[in-house]
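REQUEST FORM: STRUCTURE PREDICTION
Request ID: SP-0412
Submitted by: Lab K.M.
Chain count: 1
Length (residues): 175
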Amino acid sequence: MERMPRLAMSPRVWIGALAAVFVAMTACGSGPTVATASPPSTIEVTTTPPPVPGAGSCSNVSTAREGRHGIEVEGTTTHHEPLTVLFAGVHHTIPAGRELTTYVRVGGVRALRISMIGTNGHVDRALGFRPGLPPFDWPGPGTPWTGTLTFPQSGCWRVYVQRGGLTGELWLHAG
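STATUS: Completed
RESULT:
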């Protein structure tokens, strides 16, 4: 009976193989990194988003309630998904002209887009919203997002939210 020759690797091959495994594990072992960006801001948009049926108007603003952490406003969406906006640290009225720490809970998938439409039809798009929870307990359905909103002037505002195919909006008075 003939024997097959035993395949033996030289020490150099073993060292090379172990070095390759070590380099691969070191490169991937620290996990993903998150890039930081400039603070959220607002830009002007020229097109007005379409209205969401049954969402409200300036004479029929969305339901708002004041809680321990701020003013929470309930919105309406096209797919009956949740839409809740919390203006943190705000009490009695939603102020105009200053950045407001804002948390949004909304259903849907993909990135969140928020536009603010004034009564004159002027549209501002809020940038920089990202997934995240507030530093306090804020239970509820939908994916939580965090960012800032600034209502440039006092008056009635329509806040339009889009996430994938889901759209929603809420109506409020600022100032």
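NOTES: Residues 91 and 132 are 22 Å apart (CA to CA).
Reviewed by: T.R.
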